[in-house]
Write a structure and sequence with these properties.
Layout: H1 3-16, H2 22-43, H3 49-53, H4 57-68, H5 76-97, H6 122-130, H7 140-156, H8 160-164, E1 176-180, E2 186-190, H9 193-205, H10 227-241, H11 249-262, H12 267-274, H13 279-282, H14 284-300
Antiparallel strand pairs: 1-2
Helix pairs in contact: 1-2, 2-5, 4-5, 6-7, 7-9, 7-11, 11-14
Length: about 300
């Protein structure tokens, strides 16, 4: 079996057994094929399963160094993601095809300073939710739609893809919403009455009624609303409100978690609401809350 054939088997396994998203499969495929192509050029010989099992740590480091160099070299975070994909590929070869590569464990990724989420304040979040209603460039039903989508991002902590995956069968919204998130992980998200009301106001106003498996949120011409539209809408709103460039749709999800934490919610509950697989992913919001506390102290304490 050639290296390229092994990559394809791995990608098929990711897509059909692990049910990874198409974008994840595409990204992993690009990394793995580039890795195999580098080894072939580096060794000047075809790469098969035995060659992959015998890969040396120095060769993997050379591949990462090649990805870092050049005008379009990868930064530390992208290099870390590349190494993670390579490790996942070799783990599959070990567990499914019996070809372990022990020297992979000797390769260490670049150090990455963890980036804290950049949420918006409560007033800014409410401004984003109300601003579409006074936008003269939007039809009333489009304003109601944007308000409903942004309400789901901030009020339920949904990802854009999760909000836009709702169908006519999900409406009218009940007290809780069943969401299928990353990795096909299912979670139940409470829905506040104000959020249900925003979605219902959109449903009453839209000229494109949805039923069954039809997408709940529609674009101007009736097609399914896309993440790009939501991103563009927030970009337009933040310009009107004078908000920083870090104000994105995903920042509303960060704000949902940060504001809950600041109000006394525990990390485990926030983890379940966000659908994080690991508590360590949720713990980054404690850094945001601590930063705000220190900033308030510095501004208010007379001896600061």
């Amino acid at each position: 079996m050639t290296g390229d054939q092994a990559v394809q088997i791995w990608l098929d396994w990711l897509a059909h057994e692990r049910r990874a998203s198409p974008r994840t499969v595409e990204a992993y495929g690009r990394i793995a094929r580039g890795y195999v192509a580098f080894l072939q050029a580096y060794r000047a010989e075809p790469i098969d399963l035995d060659a992959l099992a015998g890969v040396r740590a120095a060769e993997v480091r050379a591949h990462l160094a090649a990805r870092r160099s050049g005008d379009r070299g990868l930064q530390a975070r992208s290099l870390s993601q590349t190494l993670s994909a390579i490790r996942a590929f070799h783990r599959f070869l070990d567990q499914r095809l019996g070809r372990a590569a022990p020297q992979i464990a000797l390769v260490r990724g670049p150090r990455i300073k963890p980036a804290l989420p950049r949420p918006v304040s409560e007033d800014q979040a409410l401004g984003l939710l109300h601003e579409p209603g006074v936008d003269p460039d939007l039809d009333p039903w489009e304003a109601a739609r944007d308000q409903a989508v942004l309400s789901l991002l901030y009020g339920c902590g949904l990802r854009i893809s999760e909000a836009l995956s709702l169908t006519g069968a999900d409406a009218p919204l009940g007290p809780a919403l069943r969401i299928v998130g990353k990795g096909s992980k299912t979670r139940m998200v409470p829905v506040l009455p104000v959020i249900s009301a925003a979605v219902e106001a959109y449903r009453q106003a839209t000229p494109w009624p949805s039923a069954g498996s039809d997408p709940l949120f529609r674009a101007r011409r009736g097609g399914a609303l896309t993440p790009r539209h939501v991103q563009a809408a927030v970009q337009r709103l933040r310009a009107r409100l004078g908000l920083p460039a870090s104000t994105t749709p995903h920042a509303l999800r960060h704000s949902f978690a940060t504001h809950l934490l600041g109000a006394g919610a525990d990390l485990r509950s926030i983890q379940e609401l966000l659908g994080h697989a690991s508590l360590s992913t949720t713990q980054k919001y404690t850094g945001v809350d601590a930063e705000r506390l220190l900033a308030a102290y510095s501004q208010a304490h007379p001896r600061a």
